[in-house]
Amino acid sequence: MFKSQLTSVFFMLLFALSPIYGDFELLELVSTWPATFCYAYGCSRRRPIPNNFTIHGLWPDNKSIILNNCNVANKERYIKIEDPKKLTELDKRWPQLRYDKLYGIDKQYLWEKEFLKHGTCSINRYKQAAYFDLAMNIKDRFDLLGTLRNHGINPGSTYDLDDIERAIKTVSIKVPSLKCIEKPPGNVELNEIGICLDPEAKYTVPCPRTGSCHELGPRIKFR
Ligand SMILES: *[C@@H]1O[C@H](CO)[C@@H](O)[C@H](O)[C@H]1NC(C)=O
Ligand SMILES: *[C@@H]1O[C@H](CO)[C@@H](O)[C@H](O)[C@H]1NC(C)=O
Questions:
Q1: What sections of the protein cross the membrane (predicted)?
Q2: Ligand 2 mean position to 144 CA, how many Å?
């Protein structure tokens, strides 16, 4: 064969072997502020409510459309996590706040829901174990509470949305997604922070949807 033919065979092989690109365009790690979440929705896990941001989920997404429930052929099943070390690691970063700790670890309702609703949207790239490992890995890269504190934003007070966003941008680099709840009317609280990354989670990208705080603000309580 000529060298050019060899070269094109090589590139065809490379293409065939490379991971599947193009199923989703970005990853959003959504972190919950437990005090607000538990105030708004109620938690069984109350002793104590974690005093740090915890994972809500890792959401593969597209810029122009929200991806959910990609398990169309219904062939993905959630495999219950049994490894005690993994369970401890997950429970530390991704506690299932609605449930008592042991009940949550036994039933795994939140983890299963997040995997089936969101994890299936990145399944060609991240199988179940990789999906959970990646979420924990990203969580460990962002100390959101420390970042807010470093910018004078502490639990127990109310701040301008712009100041909260400016603080988060020092670590997200790009526009984050800030999600608020309003309860009762007039009381707007920071509930979640979304940080968006490229599909390989190497660098941050702008979040395509900037979150409900922008409609509910401009004054936001950090409970
Ligand atoms: C999401 O984006 C990827 C890459 O652009 C594309 O291949 C895929 O079809 C999109 N999914 C939907 C549901 O639009
Ligand atoms: C909060 O979690 C982050 C990881 O996301 C960690 O770096 C930080 O030390 C934690 N802060 C406290 C006060 O536990």
A1: none
A2: 8
